[in-house]
Specification:
There is one protein chain. With 547 residues, the protein is mostly helical. The protein contains 21 helices and 11 strands. Among the domains are: 197 residues, Serine Threonine Protein Phosphatase 5, Tetratricopeptide repeat, CATH 1.25.40.390; 100 residues, no CATH class; 56 residues, no CATH class. The chain is globular, with a radius of gyration of 23 Å. The protein starts with a helix and ends in a 10-residue tail after the last helix.
Amino acid sequence: MKKTIIRIFNIALIGTLFLLNACTDTSEVVYHDLLSEEFIPTPEDAVAITGPAYTNLREVLFYWHGMFDTQEECSDIIVTPERPNGWVDGGVYRAMHEHIWNSEQSHSSALWNRCYTGINHCNRALYQIESGNLPMDPDDAVKTLAELKVVRAFYYYILLDNFGNVPVTTQYDVPEDFLPEQSTRQEVYNFVIQEINDNMENLPAENNVETYGRFNQWAAHTLLAKVYQNAEVYTGTAQWAKCIEECDAVITSNLYSLEPDVRNTFKTNNESSVEIIFAVPFASKSDPFEDYGWFHLLNKTLHPGSQATYDLEVQPWGGNCAIPQFINTYHPNDDRLAATWIMGPQFALNGDTVYLSMDDARTSEQLNYTNILQGIEDTYEEEGYRIGKYEIAVGTKFGRLENDWVWFRYADILMMKAEALLRTGDADGAATLVTEVRLRAFDDPADAEVTGAELQAGSSYEYGNVTEGVLEASPEGGADIQYGRFLDELGWEFAAEARRRQDLIRFGVFTTKKWLSHVPNGDFRTIFPIPETALQTNSNLVQNPGY
């Protein structure tokens, strides 16, 4: 099945050879590019023309300073501290943790430009079909146009969530000097909602190998539920009833279910998981420069010595890890702790001890991932549990995982509905759904059960600053967070899935609480600044407040 999926995406990549390159330079957004005059498309080229809209999501996620970083490195779960080898990437990861980024920060500019590259791919394909340059059966054309518009709405959802006030461009055949007008966050929200609703019924209703990695109706319902879940943040008006309606559509389809073991959803060959609603396929090839994406999370998190544990072809860099304050919130019997994090003494595949290597004075000590962090500065090389949610296959080549990235999954449908129920007065109904998700993570069902009253309590996270590995004497704690226990549940279930920033904002924690070396630094940081390069190339743009 994986080979079939990757072949489809490979065809899409080959198809781009017939086109002039779209903008992939993160320094500037180009809103259109021209078709090669030598390219005369045929109906068989449809996949090749629509494919780049999807394959670009790999760049959004995991090209350097990708979306995983923007959503997790600024949160209370994951951090990249300074290690003995000095790798903090010029301080940009520290800026993410401390919320001191500016309009020249590469993380936000990369996200902005890669999303607009994806939008450009969509607009180009839409133009080719609508202008008649791509001969297609009328029914196929309707379906393809609908799919492209929903994928484009997905990119705009990412921009809506991260930047708020962005240009909405739907035309491809525009003058070369075209500069789009900036839309308000409300206008972008309205556009995303309308595009999904207008096109959803023309998407495929099936969930099979042909729809895997693409938007079918149920992935569209999930995206719509996501937008409604965060509607109050985006517009000031909550839409919990609509969120429930979209979740129910997916639930009643009976096409998805929870995996009995959450690890199944993130294993190397995870394309057959019954829990995945929408995924971004990744796979490596024999040539490191001709691969299907750079899913390099293992390089970013593992100590160099872990190369021997997994027989990795490339040595990891020893960077990001879990913040101990979060790790300390897990129930001791919660299987998701071990399913998400790599911890404890490390050994090679043959059983030999793996040793420290970043400090010449400690090379005789065993590598032992500990639940300790000194802070953002001067952290020992073994400190912090490492990210292991996605299975790391033995013999992984070129530092690229072949697991498909899971963007939407069925557990999120249940938890979105649970949150909507909780916030609209049905705490017991919410507890039933949360318990359903928790059951697979505990051997004793009694440990998995949660009540409505518990979900209405505060968070168990000990918010406060840490100095030399010690929490401050009078930490803020999380008892004052409304529905904080539910926020904890989201952390335990979805840690390291590129979403924590969004959850913290929705629960009012992102700009109000302290963790590790982070202190609040302004409510305006719930959205990122418009990149300086974008401001310089489009005089119609106005910087977001506070930057």
